[in-house]
């Protein structure tokens, strides 16, 4: 395939391959017994990326990026490249699968990549139990028969860095044991080093395609997941944060059976949160589950400032135990992020501004986040509305707004997207990924966009009320915070309601004017005003008259016309 490319593309392939092999040789001494496997895995990655770079260069060469032919070919190259990466992840396994899963959950990449790589979510083959048993014995210091009444050798879950087994302790407590694959940390260091090198070479040939921010975020997330002791601490922090929430369950940690490679926790029964068939079978309303899920994560972001950063359906179970007929079980706390207090407050302000479409505030906060140049796109990313939208919150964009948005997006180049993602603070990136995973789950559960936006607005108000709280007593603090937050939320909802009513009245006015135009053209103005008077008299006694009995001289008072009322 490489031989078909022009000389420049072939040179690119050779330079990337040689450079990455050199980097790898310097990173790992050949005395290491795992270097052969490392070279094989890395060679596949190097060749895949080199061919992809050449494909982009060759296929799009000489085409202006604002023409339809360029966009059509770009989509085709995206799809071919995504399929190559999918095959690479499937063959190399391990961190490559994890990297593919990570990328597929981002909205900021072309849809061809996210859709193709999403198939990796369920493609993890567990390790043989003999290997897992060696890790357990070496970490716990005893034979399994001395610690457990029984131990299920078949894993109940398997991921790219660990798998989970079900067992019972000698005191008859059911536990779930998460076991890290042997040698995984060494592979991670090699694989991420190669990923950095590849990202640098891609940026060299395509300056506008800069993905170092993505590799950096992925490396940080993986490093967090490999530390099981820190994950156990995250479990306890989350448990403490939700100790008064009866809808949330966090498994208890068994510290005497927990090490850097083994994590033992309480076993909790439940089904994946997006299993709608199970929920309906248990008479649990899926939309209510979606609302509680959004409230839990909104509380993490806006109130606690401590976020579970990997909320895919496999990490959240619905248990039939709990207040209200169900509870949410939060698993896998490896990727947790402590948000800066300043960032938490500014993010609360951003969401209030997004809901109220306060463009000045949005622009100010975008500048604080380092993306002031792209402030107009924040409402589109988070609420699905343009910054000058005339549609109600949670509603779809008007046709005019869609056309205007497409024009703005067409003007964006890859350089803009790279610059935007590079400028965002790390806290923002993990929230974007978390929000995208939540949106997908909430959509499967049948909840409307309105629920998500209102929930975030409510908790943003609650989060801001924490800023100036003068109370010192914990009980008073909680009561005061809830009171102020709920008052602000009520005011926010009233504002939204009034805005929605005004927009509805403007729409009604346009419809009436359009109808009047048609009646005027047909010479039926008098009939129009007679029918309009009839409607208005249903709500208030204000005559609708005008010169010659046609045009009004008195503007009628505003009337609350029920939805569905028609002039017939």
TrEMBL record:
It comes from the Eukaryota. Gene3D superfamilies: Transferase(Phosphotransferase) domain 1. Residues 150-451 form the Protein kinase domain. Pfam families: ABC1. Belongs to the protein kinase superfamily. ADCK protein kinase family. This is Protein kinase domain-containing protein. It comes from Gossypium arboreum. The lineage of its organism: Eukaryota, Viridiplantae, Streptophyta, Embryophyta, Tracheophyta.
